[in-house]
Amino acid sequence: xxxxxxxxxxxxxxxxxxxxxxxxxxxxxxxxxxxxxxxxxxxxxxxxxxxxxxxxxxxxxxxxxxxxxxxxxxxxxxxxxxxxxxxxxxxxxxxxxxxxxxxxxxxxxxxxxxxxxxxxxxxxxxxxxxxxxxxxxxxxxxxxxxxxxxxxxxxxxxxxxxxxxxxxxxxxxxxxxxxxxxxxxxxxxxxxxxxxxxxxxxxxxxxxxxxxxxxxxxxxxxxxxxxxxxxxxxxxxxxxxxxxxxxxxxxxxxxxxxxxxxxxxxxxxxxxxxxxxxxxxxxxxxxxxxxxxxxxxxxxxxxxxxxxxxxxxxxxxxxxxxxxxxxxxxxxxxxxxxxxxxxxxxxxxxxxxxxxxxxxxxxxxxxxxxxxxxxxxxxxxxxx
Length: 384
Ligand SMILES: *Cc1c(COP(=O)(O)O)cnc(C)c1O
What we know:
By secondary structure, the protein is α/β, with parallel strands linked by helices. Helix content is about 40%, strand content about 15%. The protein has two domains: about 5-240, 3-Layer(aba) Sandwich (Aspartate Aminotransferase, domain 2), CATH 3.40.640; about 245-370, Alpha-Beta Complex (Aspartate Aminotransferase, domain 1), CATH 3.90.1150. The protein has 13 helices and twelve strands. Strands 1-7-6-5-4-2-3 form a seven-stranded mixed beta sheet, sandwiched between helices. A five-stranded mixed beta sheet has the order 8-9-12-11-10, covered by helices on one side. The structure holds pyridoxal-5'-phosphate.
């Protein structure tokens, strides 16, 4: 059976009522027949029927044994780091999501967990960076915003050799293109805010574990620390998952067209697209903040906003938005120059999206001709 059929039919019809959609159990507590005697639910932080359904579906989709749903992608990452102890070290991908970097450096460092960052496309560098204290390898692939792809299977064998936990942030690929647990990873996390939710209407995170014991530890931290996903948001993710394959395939088709268009454009120096998914980045030949800033404000269909993976196309300027807090030298070394622009290609018609970009290119060229010393426009969305 194909994955999409399997997914749709892993969502059960409600046994009580025959409801074909998963009911939203918007309740905090559950009435007990006698103290400690219940129907499998006692308090919604610990377990909720709607959330449980979501967790079952995503565990199956990612080929894991246990899944836990959190109130954000960062809460999901946080739960994984709680598997570690003071004195442990993390080996993390160098162009890591900014929020994960902040969590590691500003929160966990003060609890005695240190992180080393390495280019995970360089396997020798991974070997070299492992110390006796390393306990966890943290990978994102493809990375943001330059979409570098690492070899999960090869890194998994390194993790196995040194008996390290291996976690993969699978947000950008989605389970449609990549199932890290099948390639040897121990843990997968998602910012379900992106492709899994898919409609830019929910903040959510997921952790999926291969080993049931690790899964139970994650469930323990989910309940003990409490950043659980609510019933309505769980419903939204189930609804998003129902169209995940369809949406992601279309994101890829349109993003491929957009990447091809950019590739041949005379104003573009470099295009970053791994061949799948909805995110395309490109560097302007005129690699300046002023030009990029004008460009990202000139599109009409691509809305200027952070985030990705939704039905509506988004455009962003990493150097002044998502990657603003990174030291400019380090930022440039990671490929995030001032003229780099990131697109999240949505589900509008691809030809309309290409036309929108063409208009923006024409606009920046006219603007440059008309006012050579015009100041860059203000009004960027502050970094989150
Ligand atoms: C957005 C994102 C996160 C954080 O998720 P939130 O839902 O915003 O907390 C983590 N990792 C990646 C790769 C992301 O894109």
